[in-house]
Hints:
Blueprint: H1 3-26, E1 36-37, E2 43-44, E3 49-52, E4 57-59, E5 67-73, H2 80-94, H3 98-102, E6 104-110, H4 118-128, E7 133-136, H5 139-149, E8 153-156, E9 166-169, E10 173-176, E11 181-186, H6 192-205
Helix pairs in contact: 2-6
Amino acid sequence: MNKSSIAIIVVLALASGFAMSWIINSSKPVKLEAGTWFGEQARALPEFELLDHNNQALTRASLNGKWNLIFFGYTHCPDICPISLQILSDMVAAIEDPDVANALRIYFVSVDPERDKPEVLASYVSYFNPAFTGATAQMDKLIPLTRSLGIAHEIRNQVEGNPVYDVDHSSAIVLVNPRAEFAGLFGAPHDAAAMARDMTLIVEHN
């Protein structure tokens, strides 16, 4: 075998090695600090239609093309909702790569549609971050979405004519990928810096 043939074999072997390394590394699951990544187990969301704080329809198609973080709560929530929205705002600020930050959208979906009308949501979410989107819908339209994501919520102690009542709800932050698939979950307690690192890893990996 001449030297040129040996050189070609070496080059091909190296190329094959690099290709195999790339395939293996690219197929590894994303390991998150603060959440759970579903990888190939991601599943498509059902069709849904909410109303956002600008009185525009928010549908499954609206989530296409971006990485979406969704938190479900209500504006009268005394603790976990304001804390979580502040953490999400801090998370966005902690992302160093502007391309990663621009690839994200943050949604606050109210499970208290009777009190959280669009104008209420607009004031509430903009307090934490003007780029956030608030949305809600009547329960018959809301439940198919929350059920598909494993988000529990229940209105308690509601008396007709009394605007004061409680709403129990899950505290997880849902990750939806650019194909409108349920792709991950961040459980409480939430950590802004860790989530920023996780989202940077997810966006850059994908």
